[in-house]
């Protein structure tokens, strides 16, 4: 089976979800005013099948407009929690968190695979220009009661390019309908779209722009990943899937967009005009609240973790795996150390944690990351119970916690925006060492674990497993 087919084509992805029982087609009429949003939120919270709404109130069932919710939500099928994310990047549905992070990390060391321009594609089937365009005619949902507007873009991919044409950026950022032909969106200065917008502003020209929906799933995942500035997301997507993304030229500007996208909006981002936007429920679970796990966690937390793993390894730190538990809303990063290599470094807890903190917090994803949990390789960072156990048992308040005040944080973290004002203008970040001093010095630790896995001989474990149903369980 070609696992990358779904990663390269949104329609194929939807079909495979349906075939696997990961999708439910909702034919009953649903109201875009809050009902759609409430259904999708409940789907996330119960890890239910992704709903494909075919009958959205206010829009004839002409089959042209459908809404897919929770496209990269979690699954409650046993052993398949990450299947939608796995499928998005070309892995089998049973892939683990480790498999997913490893695949993204491996692509980082592959040569870039630039996109390939083609003459035309399905995206060119219907073209509306000028006054034919009316965004207010679309059944755009009001997703949460206290949102400042109707959000057309929640998983849309913005395409922009530096004025010299050297850097193309594909990124997810939200967008709210403002008028027939206007959207309001976030251009956060630290994000690449903000960096590029500033270049256009210096030049004194509005920024050519396209916003794409229903792009190849691998593209949307990378659109949510903090890869370094001045690197092209399309090239990395190609490296991840092993094939160039096929792109076509826009109708009204020279930007290139995926040929098999569902919808592309074209226009400019003004460099002179700003408008009020939001509020909108946020990844950190407050209104601003997108409570876990939605794509802000499945995609963003995971791709940040993969990027951090790459950054640590590039800095020669003996890090095996990084994961951000979805339940932490992208604010905890469990960093797993290779203990044998750590011991060989002849370092100590403070030196190592300070070095790790500087490497991660000063990096591009570091701006989003406030809390690192450093764990040994006897802890599975993708297992939240393991991480909690490590923190509870190994991390001494004060003495195993290394606080950094010199790096800034994304203001969306509730205690950054609404916490105590800080004199320096920055807030604390922490490396919590969930290991003991001996973890840094002893190849073999003097204590034994107390789990089923660790506390019994193989023969006894096998007997218990073989007889499990015979015991009456
Ligand atoms: C579902 C989802 C929604 C997101 N919404 C926003 C957003 O509205 N604004 C924003 O700046 N970043 C948002 N992000 C995070 C960015 O996509 C992410 O930081 C990415 O690295 C930005 O691209 P860049 O690295 O090219 O700047 C979102 C991510 C996901 C997965
Ligand atoms: Mn970028």
Strand arrangement, largest sheet?
14-15-16-18-17
Number of helices: 14
Mean pLDDT: 95
Helix/strand structural class: alpha+beta
Number of strands: 18
Radius of gyration: 23 Å
Approximate shape: globular
Characterize the biggest β-sheet: 5 strands, mixed
Bound molecules: flavin mononucleotide, manganese (II) ion
Helix amount, in percent? 25-40%
Low-confidence stretches: none
Assembly state of the chains shown: single chain
For the termini, the CA-CA separation is 36 Å
Strand % is 15-25%
Count the domains. Answer: 2
What is the topological layout?
Layout lengths: L3 H5 L1 H10 L3 E4 L8 H12 L3 E4 L13 E2 L14 H6 L8 H12 L7 E2 L33 E3 L3 E5 L6 E5 L2 E5 L2 E4 L6 H12 L3 E7 L3 H7 L9 H9 L4 E4 L6 E3 L4 E7 L25 H20 L4 E5 L8 E6 L1 H6 L4 H13 L9 E5 L8 H11 L6 E4 L9 H4 L11 E5 L24 H9 L7
Manganese (II) ion binds next to strand 7.
Main traits of this protein?
14 helices; UbiD C-terminal domain-like; lyase; binds flavin mononucleotide; manganese; alpha+beta; FDC-like; binds manganese (II) ion; 473 residues; carboxy-lyase activity; EC 4.1.1.102; 5-stranded mixed sheet; 18 strands; globular; 4-stranded antiparallel sheet; single chain; 2 domains; 17% strand
Describe this structure in words.
- The chain is α+β, with helices and mostly antiparallel strands and 473 residues long.
- It has 2 domains: 4-269, no CATH class; 295-440, UbiD C-terminal domain-like.
- Helix content is 29%, strand content 17%.
- The protein contains 14 helices and 18 strands.
- It has helices spanning 4-8, 10-19, 35-46, 83-88, 97-108, 192-203, 217-223, 233-241, 295-314, 339-344, 349-361, 384-394, 414-417, 458-466, and strands at residues 23-26, 50-53, 67-68, 116-117, 151-153, 157-161, 168-172, 175-179, 182-185, 207-213, 246-249, 256-258, 263-269, 319-323, 332-337, 371-375, 401-404, 429-433.
- A 5-stranded mixed sheet has the order 14-15-16-18-17, sandwiched between helices. A 4-stranded antiparallel sheet has the order 7-6-10-13.
- The chain binds flavin mononucleotide and manganese (II) ion (MN).
- The site of manganese (II) ion (MN) has 5 residues, from strand 7.
- Belongs to the UbiD family. UbiD-like/FDC subfamily.
- One of its GO terms (molecular function) is metal ion binding.
- Prenylated FMN binds at residues 169-174, 191-192, 233, 364.
């Amino acid at each position: 089976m070609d696992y990358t087919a779904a990663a390269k084509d949104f329609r194929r992805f939807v079909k495979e979800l349906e075939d696997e029982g990961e999708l439910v087609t909702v034919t009953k009429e649903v109201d875009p005013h809050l009902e759609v949003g409430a259904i999708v939120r409940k789907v996330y919270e119960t890890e239910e099948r992704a709903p494909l709404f075919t009958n959205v109130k206010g829009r004839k069932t002409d089959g042209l407009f459908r809404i897919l919710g929770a496209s990269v939500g979690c699954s409650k099928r046993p052993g398949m929690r990450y299947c939608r994310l796995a499928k998005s990047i070309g892995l089998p549905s049973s892939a683990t968190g480790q498999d997913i992070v490893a695949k993204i990390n491996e692509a980082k060391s592959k040569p870039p695979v630039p996109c390939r321009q083609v003459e035309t594609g399905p995206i060119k089937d219907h073209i509306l220009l000028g006054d034919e365009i009316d965004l207010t005619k679309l059944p755009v949902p009001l997703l949460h009661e206290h949102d400042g507007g109707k959000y057309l873009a929640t998983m849309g991919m913005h395409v922009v390019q530096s004025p010299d044409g050297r850097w193309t950026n594909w990124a997810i950022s939200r967008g709210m309908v403002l008028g027939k032909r206007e959207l309001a969106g976030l251009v956060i200065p630290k994000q690449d779209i903000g960096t590029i917008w500033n270049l256009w502003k210096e030049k004194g020209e509005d920024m050519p722009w396209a916003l794409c929906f229903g792009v190849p799933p691998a593209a949307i995942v990378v659109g949510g990943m903090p890869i370094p500035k001045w690197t092209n997301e399309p090239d990395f997507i190609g490296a991840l899937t092993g094939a160039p993304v096929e792109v076509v030229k826009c109708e009204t500007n020279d930007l290139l967009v995926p040929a098999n996208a569902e919808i592309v909006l074209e226009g400019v981002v003004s460099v002179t005009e700003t408008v009020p936007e939001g509020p909108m429920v946020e990844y950190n679970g407050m209104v601003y609240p997108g409570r876990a796990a939605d794509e802000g966690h499945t995609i963003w937390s995971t791709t940040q973790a993969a990027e951090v793993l790459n950054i640590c390894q590039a800095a020669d730190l003996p890090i095996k795996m990084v994961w951000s538990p979805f339940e932490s809303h992208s604010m905890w990063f469990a960093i797993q150390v290779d203990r044998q290599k750590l011991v060989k470094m002849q370092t100590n807890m403070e030196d190592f944690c300070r070095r790790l903190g500087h490497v991660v917090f000063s990096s591009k994803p570091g701006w989003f990351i406030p809390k690192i949990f450093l764990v040994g390789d006897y802890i599975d960072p993708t297992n939240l119970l393991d991480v909690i156990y490590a923190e509870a048992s190994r991390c001494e308040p004060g003495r195993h916690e290394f606080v950094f005040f010199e790096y800034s944080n994304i203001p969306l973290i509730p205690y950054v925006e609404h916490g105590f004002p800080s004199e320096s203008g920055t807030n604390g970040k922490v490396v919590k060492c969930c290991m003991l001093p001996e973890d840094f010095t002893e190849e073999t630790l003097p204590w034994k674990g107390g789990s089923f896995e660790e506390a019994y001989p193989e023969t006894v474990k096998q007997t218990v497993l073989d007889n499990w149903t015979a015991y009456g369980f």
